[in-house]
Specification:
Layout (H helix, E strand, L loop, with lengths): L1 E8 L10 E12 L5 H15 L1 H7 L4 E9 L2 H7 L1
Parallel strand pairs: 2-3
Antiparallel strand pairs: 1-2
Length: 82
């Protein structure tokens, strides 16, 4: 699992005067099984949209977006259990 953050800077002439114009989070999460996907997704949405103080601060600077990418740890093993 990982969290990556990327941002765009304004393109002013002086690098010291650049400001953030967009910030994007990417959540790559691995779950034990497919049934946990919705739970993990909802938890990340609440964390990002409601409970994260860092996100609230960043939204004062620039638009903040996010993507949630959830993967199953062993999809072949899960198929055998169904």
């Amino acid at each position: 699992s990982s969290i990556k953050v990327s941002a765009q800077l304004s393109s002013t002439a002086a690098p010291s005067q650049n400001i953030f114009t967009a910030i994007a989070f990417r959540f790559d999460i691995t779950c034990g099984n497919h049934h946990d996907h919705a739970l993990v997704s909802r938890a990340l949405e609440l964390t990002h949209d409601k409970y994260c103080g860092i996100t609230r601060m960043l939204k004062m600077i620039a638009p903040v977006s996010y993507g949630i990418y959830i993967h199953t740890a062993n999809p072949e093993e899960e198929k055998a259990l169904v």
